[in-house]
Amino acid sequence: MTQEPPGKRVRVTSPRSGAARRRQVAVTHEIDAQTGVGEVFVRSLITTQMRLAMLVLVVVAVLVGGLPALFALVPRLSDVDALGIPLPWLLLGGLVYPALVTLAWFYVRQAERVEREFSDLVERS
Amino acid sequence: MNATASIVAVVLVATATLGIGALGLRFSRTTSDFYVASRSVGPLWNASAIGGEYLSAGSFLGVAGLVLAFGADMLWYPVGWTAGYLVLLVLVAAPLRRSGAYTLPDFAEARLESQHARRISSLLVVAIGWLYLLPQFQGAGITLRTVTGAPVWVGGVVIALVVIVNVLSGGMRSITFVQAFQYWLKLTALLVPLAFLLLRWGADGWPSPAAAEVPPGALPGEEWVLPLSSGIEHPVYATYSLILATFLGTMGLPHVLVRFYTNPDGRAARRTTLVVLVLLGSFYLMPALYGALGRVYAPDLLAAGRGDTVVLELPARMVDGMLGDALGALVTAGAFAAFLSTSSGLTVSVAGVLSQDLLARWMGGISAFRAAGVLAVLVPLLLAVLAQNLPIAQVVGLAFAVAASTFCPLLVLGIWWWRLTDAGAISGLLVGGALSGGAVVLTVLGMATEGWTGALLGQPGAWTVPIAFAVMIGVSLATPRRVAPNVARTMVRLHMPEQIEVDRGDFQPRAARLSRSRRTRG
Predict the structure, then answer these.
(1) Cβ separation of A104 and B277 shorter than 8 Å?
(2) ipTM of the complex
(3) Torsion sign over Cα A18, A20, A26, A28
(4) pTM (two decimals)
(5) Nearest to B522 by CA among B514, B327, B231
(6) Which of A31, A33, B442, B457 is the most buried (most CB within 10 A)?
(7) Mutate which of A30, A83, A96 to test chain B, going by most B C-beta atoms within 10 A?
């Protein structure tokens, strides 16, 4: 076996641009065959989506779930009037709804982005 | 209140419901049409239908009645019923659609690969459905009594008949159109009168609801306006328990889940849920205003213990003449739409489960569905006639507590936790169902109303939900060998976006299997 002279580089390329396409089949096959690689892909998608869900739930728990505690700990808040309406009524009867819709909108956008990126990943690799 | 105008309104709503149902009938011919409208329903239609089905007697009449009587703390009911959809959106919506299940028992079977889990889920669906149908029939009875003076049972029987005819003739397909129509009817029925009520309120110089004269025995205005002072014992515990039950209970209601199958894919299921949140949020801005105005214009209802009728009474009291009568008829129509839509949706779900899991042995397809529909309505109607004095929103709240203590852990753990086993799920369903169901029975019978026992049983969510989760997790960890053999494939099915081509297993909901086997046999 002849030794390559040191310093000389060998370029390894594929002449075929269809290489990426072959791998796409491979990743979905890994998932179908339930190999370790396939399971890593599936679990990573589920973990990402679960983190996103947890983030939204923690925000809801703090913002909305924190209100009774706040009213209990700082009773003076309940006497505050905003726009002529007592603060608890303004928050619970009105402002909480746009807040929930905004959170839902944020979640839908992010969840779709996660799925788009996952599809890209499966197709690219 | 002018009875004739209101009776005309009720007849119109019933006729329109049956008419649209008949229109849908021309399109629904196969078994899967009956259950899930063949998945050919657009997102706004579907979201309107979900909203229409969800806004029940508890939302249309009950919230205003509770706010009138107990004030600020009761605002948590509509907040929880809306936030429940946000929790459902982030934890359940897309995976559940992707699971391909028509019903909760289908989901249990698909995920756990266990017929026992399926059967126990079926029993719970029927129990929760009946518990939720009961206050709908009661609400109908109260409404018809307010309008015409008829005995309370008449309204329930009227609603039951319309629902049976409608469900039996058209199934889910026609129900979808009916429900969508009824959301917009309900919104209009509260919004238009509210505009006139606010005009009158302004013309009177905006008298403060908190300063209004109320009859002796009612909650005084200065306590009514503040949170955590509604006269209920242990208000902080009760508030948090209510939050837990409503936020987590929505996903476990039988008529809510079946709707998700009518979305074409998981992404559409999410987007539909977002629209639902907008529709519910818009609606729930209004009932509290009715309740608050009731302090000023109808405080006598408090003394009579008829707070649930405040929405029906206000228009005729605050607006004079023909216009007042017309507005009164409009809210009556909206109230009937509320009973009809929620009871139709519940009846379809309960009938679906009854026919697939109990009657399928003796008869098949559409005839089983029809027999089950009659059964699904008759039992809660009898219960409603026998137990007439339960407050509407309280019974609805208890149904949420049972759903949150049973199906919420099943769905959340089933979708996100690989190690859930059939033994764990079944133990959790049984323990959660027994504890929350026991609390419901004791509360409804009025056995414990005082002190901590009363608070714990009246709002059981805060302890039954964590116990159900703990039992499901603990027993699953103790039975690691019982993890479903195809759990990996099921997880792929639940979470993988539809455009990625992978093997998703071959699960078929039972309704589809039944109709297929009949077709090959016949």
Answers:
(1) yes
(2) 0.90
(3) negative
(4) 0.89
(5) B514
(6) A31
(7) A96
